Amino acid sequence: MPRMYPLPKPKPKTRWQIFAEARGIKKHKRSRLVFDKSVNDWVPRWGYKSIKKGPLHAPPIVEVTGSKVPPDVDPFEAASRKKSERKTRQKIRELRNKAEGDSLNRAHTALERAKTSTRSCGKFDKKKKGVNDKKTIKRKAVSRP
After folding, report:
1. How far is CA 51 from CA 43, 54, 88, in A?
2. Does an H or E element contain 104, and which?
3. Residue ranges per structural domain of the chain
4. In this predicted model, what pLDDT tens digit does every residue of 80-91 receive, in sequence order?
5. pTM for the whole structure
6. Which residues form a coiled coil (predicted)?
7. Tens digits of per-residue pLDDT, 25-39?
8. Integer distance in angstroms from the first to the last C-alpha of the chain?
């Protein structure tokens, strides 16, 4: 059976998808509960009463290793600063992936489709300066006998 329209083009892969294919990484579901030895029970992996908030994962004393560490540096503050740096780097990666993923072109086509999705095909909508109208097919009214 022939198709009326051509097959849709595949979306471009993100950096992660290309990397995962090269390494053979596959998606798998992660369990929500984890066994915590300190409590000797199953606890959530994230959220309220999670294993991350347990006594083992928030030590009150941090051992300073190496002689190059200055004595005036707070190890807790340094850890939080490292975490915030990791977060900002991740945000930069996300933005780069969006730019590379051709998301702007997809957004542009979605916007064009939304403009003409009204009953009047966008004929009476307010138009922005400098934006060209996409030509639509003009249909003649069918006369009825």
Report:
1. 6, 5, 25
2. helix 103-115
3. 14-60, 74-116
4. 899 999 999 999
5. 0.43
6. none
7. 998 888 999 998 888
8. 37
